[in-house]
């Protein structure tokens, strides 16, 4: 499938301007918030066999109003300066929205990782990390990368190792997040973005009045869902929604799509893809759709684009049948597409909110690295003993004794994964409450994205007032 050129930075700026027009913030401050503070463009050679390949790469730091800056690194043939600048801007607004105290950043390396061996990828990644370190573009208090499209825990461990070799220090491993748990990562980071998508959609679907306006029943259970992109974000979103009563009816990948109105099992689809190299020919009652993009137009309640930007535009927005579009990817809906969807009464849940689970749990990982202690280590046993004491009193008082299983459920102290997931859920619920409240209060604002931008812009503006301006 092909997606035509998408003006990503233009889209982010359009959304920003639409929201800024509803605020009373000083024009100069708005201009500063919108501007990308610094971009580092680099070219470096990597030896591949007997040949040398010149690799192009970028790191954009959109806003320094909070330090460090933070954002993923993407490996993609389509990586460009405009793309990383747009993604870095989104990171600024996203961090502000979910109260993660970072400025926004993003990196990109212009390669197709599928065309490289593991050894070659390691060489490219380490050289990129070295270039960032050389220019002071990485560090636990400066700029902290994380995974994005085409990268994961493995790449993050290479980056950490390269950085730490040149900059040892007690906080050095906080230079990057999304690391393997055995190397300073936090439990729950791998699936955090997908889990955040689930928590966000669950919260949105819990408002009976809002669901009624969309012609839907409240609750995520039983809702039919199509997911585009079966990578880190899309797969975990599908798996967790499936495990909690949602019905995954469609999966779209670059090689094609599958659709079954009765439901698909995400684990079985992933296994099939690993074994055959494709989601097509999955069977089990699913039909193959050769034109992957057209899968987005199949019947469902919720459509989750979790692959790339610019997939819903004025060309296909009028054909979408979903009532809710959950932007798990960054920038999947163009401003023209969004206008058509809003006019049709379709709810678009913006990326800067819905995929903020990744950066939220990255923040937890960074805190863990700086504090040098695993979440739950200090208080798990203490909480467990306190709960047991309370339970003992209640048992004496009521004369009823709980079974061991019931006791475990009541007295369980939080492990790291429990604390991380509960912190993530709290963040997603709290941020949605702010967006919804802003939407209710603002006059002539009819969509969640404009409301979310308004919340973020106000927060960043208040951080800028009287700061960063030298006399
Ligand atoms: P990924 O590389 O793990 O997965 C992306 C998937 O999309 C791959 O399986 C790929 O084959 C598929 N894909 C690519 N082009 C496609 C197309 N044209 N049609 C259908 N499928 C296509 O990447 P990811 O980390 O899951 O990121 C996906 C999106 O989520 C990106 O927009 C990214 O910026 C955003 N995001 C990621 C994170 C994170 O923590 N990884 C956090 C926030 C936002």
Structural overview:
It is a single chain. The chain is of the alpha/beta class and 471 residues long. The protein has 2 domains: 1-35 and 186-376 and 414-471, Rossmann fold (3-Layer(aba) Sandwich), CATH 3.40.50; 39-183, Leucine Dehydrogenase, chain A, domain 1 (Rossmann fold), CATH 3.40.50.10860. It has 16 helices and 12 strands. Strand 6 (224-228), helix 8 and strand 7 form a beta-alpha-beta unit. Helix 6 (192-205) packs across helix 8 (232-243). The protein is globular and about 75 Å long. The model has no long low-confidence stretch (mean pLDDT 96). Bound molecules: nicotinamide-adenine-dinucleotide. The site of nicotinamide-adenine-dinucleotide (NAD) has 27 residues, from helix 8 and strand 7.
Short description:
By secondary structure, the chain is an alpha/beta fold. Helices cover 45% and strands 15% of the residues. It has 2 domains: 1-35 and 186-376 and 414-471, Rossmann fold (3-Layer(aba) Sandwich); 39-183, Rossmann fold (3-Layer(aba) Sandwich).
């Amino acid at each position: 499938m092909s997606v035509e050129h998408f003006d990503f930075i233009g889209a982010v700026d359009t959304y920003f301007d639409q929201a800024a027009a509803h605020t009373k913030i000083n024009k100069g401050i708005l201009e500063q918030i919108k501007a990308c503070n610094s971009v580092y463009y680099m070219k470096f050679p990597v030896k591949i066999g007997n040949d040398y390949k010149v690799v192009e790469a970028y790191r954009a730091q959109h806003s320094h109003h909070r330090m460090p800056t933070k954002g993923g690194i993407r490996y993609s043939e389509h990586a460009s300066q405009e793309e990383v600048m747009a993604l870095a801007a989104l990171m600024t607004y996203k961090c502000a929205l979910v109260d993660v105290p970072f400025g926004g950043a993003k990196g990109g390396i212009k390669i197709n990782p599928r065309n490289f061996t593991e050894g070659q990828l390691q060489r490219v990644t380490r050289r990129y990390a070295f270039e960032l370190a050389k220019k002071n573009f990485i560090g636990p208090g400066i700029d902290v990368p994380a995974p994005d499209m085409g990268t994961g825990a493995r790449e993050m461990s290479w980056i950490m190792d390269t950085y730490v070799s040149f900059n040892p220090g007690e906080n050095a491993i906080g230079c990057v997040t999304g690391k393997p748990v055995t190397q300073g990562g936090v439990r729950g980071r791998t699936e955090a973005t997908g889990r955040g998508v689930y928590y966000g959609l669950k919260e949105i679907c819990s408002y009976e009045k809002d669901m009624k306006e969309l012609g839907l029943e409240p609750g995520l259970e039983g809702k039919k869902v199509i997911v585009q992109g079966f990578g880190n974000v899309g797969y975990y979103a599908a798996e967790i929604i499936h495990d909690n009563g949602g019905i995954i009816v469609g999966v779209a990948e670059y090689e094609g799509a599958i659709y079954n109105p009765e439901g698909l099992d995400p684990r079985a689809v992933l296994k099939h893809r690993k074994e055959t190299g494709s989601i097509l020919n999955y069977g089990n009652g699913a039909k193959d759709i050769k034109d992957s993009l057209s899968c987005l137009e199949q019947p469902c309640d919720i459509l989750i684009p979790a692959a790339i930007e610019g997939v819903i535009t004025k060309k296909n927005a009028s054909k979408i049948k979903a009532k809710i579009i959950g932007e798990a990817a960054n920038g999947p809906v163009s401003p023209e597409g969004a206008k058509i969807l809003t006019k049709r009464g379709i709810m678009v849940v913006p990326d800067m909110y819905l995929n903020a689970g990744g950066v939220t749990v990255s923040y937890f990982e960074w805190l863990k690295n700086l504090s040098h202690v695993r979440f739950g280590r200090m208080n798990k046993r203490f909480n467990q003993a306190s709960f047991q004491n309370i339970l003992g009193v209640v048992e004496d008082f009521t004369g009823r004794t709980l079974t061991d299983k019931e006791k475990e459920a009541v007295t369980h102290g939080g492990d790291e994964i429990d604390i991380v997931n509960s912190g993530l859920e709290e963040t997603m619920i709290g941020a949605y409450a702010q967006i919804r409240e802003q939407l209710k209060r603002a006059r002539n604002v009819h969509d969640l994205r404009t409301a979310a931008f308004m919340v973020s812009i106000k927060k960043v503006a208040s951080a800028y007032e009287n700061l960063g301006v030298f006399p």
